[in-house]
Amino acid sequence: MNPIRLLVADDHTIVREGLVSMLEETGECQVVAQAADGFHAMEMALKTRPDVVVTDISMPRMSGLEVVKRVRAELPGTRTLVLTVHEEDEYILPILRAGANGFLNKDTSVAELMTAIKTIHVGQSYFGPRAAKALADRQSRGRSISTDPYDTLTARERETFHLVIQGKTTKEIAQILDIGVKTAENHRARMMEKLGLRNTAEVVRFAALRGLLS
């Protein structure tokens, strides 16, 4: 089994290097890039396309929150895990809304961190106790937080999505859905914008990584 390819971003050198060392010692991870700030993290993420980005929240030049947003938009095949000392709702909720796939406190054990990374890598979410409680509290009040951009698509946009991964052209999509070509183009454009995708190949890859191919 191939190791999980990671990018680790944290502006504290001792913390970052210690984390890298611990993760690589497990034999289940390969740290393909490190970054001391959010801007460099995104540069390296775009260059190396890791399986999982492990990032702190508070970093120079670009926050972990912005890193999560940009990874979600620009690298749909890459998952994100926020590892931080902050457990207040004012930090947790924006990270969840940004689309992070996981959230853990830095006090966590290496064993739990590895469980989180492996869970996220296979397409699921993993949240520590405090983040899970914040999510549950919010959902109990009828205010859900979508952790997958696919959930933001309308019914028509989802139909368009599945027709695209079947290889249908915009004209064929219009015929199948019994709508105008211009309307089909609009549905396709909005769908790709919401998912942060640029072309059909990325749509297919997005679908494959989430088990949506049919």
Molecular structure report:
This protein is of the alpha/beta class. It has ten helices and six strands; from the N terminus they run E-H-E-H-E-H-E-H-E-H-E-H-H-H-H-H. Helix 4 (89-98) crosses helix 6. The chain is elongated.
Structure, briefly:
The chain is of the alpha/beta class and 214 residues long. The model has no long low-confidence stretch (mean pLDDT 85).
Oligomer: single chain
Order of helices and strands: EHEHEHEHEHEHHHHH
Q: From the alpha-carbon coordinates, what is the Rg to the nearest angstrom?
A: 18 Å
Number of helices: 10
Quick one: biggest sheet?
Answer: 6 strands, parallel
Helix coverage percent: 40-55%
Poorly predicted regions are none
Q: Kindly state the mean pLDDT as a whole number? A: 85
Spatial arrangement of strands, main beta sheet: 2-1-3-4-5-6
Structural class designation: alpha/beta
- Strand content is 5-15%
Shape descriptor? elongated
Strand count = 6
Distance between the termini: 26 Å
